UniProtKB/TrEMBL annotation:
<protein>
    <submittedName>
        <fullName>Predicted protein</fullName>
    </submittedName>
</protein>
<dbReference type="InterPro" id="IPR029045">
    <property type="entry name" value="ClpP/crotonase-like_dom_sf"/>
</dbReference>
<dbReference type="Pfam" id="PF00378">
    <property type="entry name" value="ECH_1"/>
</dbReference>
<dbReference type="InterPro" id="IPR001753">
    <property type="entry name" value="Enoyl-CoA_hydra/iso"/>
</dbReference>
<comment type="similarity">
    <text>Belongs to the enoyl-CoA hydratase/isomerase family.</text>
</comment>
């Protein structure tokens, strides 16, 4: 996260309110906020170091592909910068509070292997294959129903802000809205697809 440059009599305690009032805390100055407004899935590709702000941007991705050289590092505590792009809250929910405390309070690097084991990274590949793997994942998403993909991402992310009872209610509410918004032709096509699936022989798996 950024910090205002000291100038004249400015100190961190006096600079912060003035800096925020000039719009530095607005979404336009915060790439993570901009990413969170994106309705389409974001597939991140990381090779090498993702440090502090880079770490926060990585956490804002919906899926993450990491090269073997990838290292995620939170240096807020080292330099006395208070996080403001969500890292302190997102990381603990993603990898667990104990691991998040160690990562952030000791400024220890998270390797690609650790990131995959802890659920931070979806895939680990050789550095030379990071971008191609990310594109492969994105293309797999793009082959699906685009409208449903957007709505699915939304209900997952919004549900994470709720307890299970209210998250299930949210899913049901949006499902009703989705089906009510279908045309007769769309609903008929969906029924044909379901009937076709049910007529297939059961899998041996």
């Amino acid at each position: 996260s950024p910090w205002p440059r000291r100038s004249g009599s400015w100190t961190p305690t006096t600079a912060w309110p003035r800096w925020c009032s000039r719009g530095a805390a607005a979404p336009s100055a915060n790439p993570v906020a901009q990413m969170e407004l994106c309705r389409k899935p974001i597939v991140g590709a990381v090779a090498g170091f993702a440090v502090t702000a880079g770490f926060e941007i990585a956490l804002a991705c919906d899926l993450l592909v990491a090269g073997r050289s990838a290292k995620f590092l939170d240096t807020h505590a080292k330099f006395g910068i208070f996080p403001s792009w969500g890292l302190s809250q997102k990381l603990s929910r993603l990898i667990g509070p104990n691991r998040a405390r160690e990562v952030s309070l000791t400024c220890m690097p998270v390797t690609a292997e650790m990131a995959e084991k802890w659920g931070l990274a979806n895939h680990i590949v050789e550095d030379s294959q990071v971008l191609s793997k990310a594109i492969e994942v994105a293309e797999a998403i793009a082959r699906n129903n685009r409208n449903l993909v957007v709505l699915y991402k939304s209900v997952i992310n919004d549900g994470l802000q709720l307890d299970m009872k209210h998250a299930r209610a949210l899913e049901k509410e949006r499902a009703v809205n989705y089906y009510n918004g279908m045309t007769k032709e769309q609903f008929a096509n969906m029924q044909k697809f379901i009937q076709g699936r049910s007529s297939k022989p059961p899998s041996k798996l």
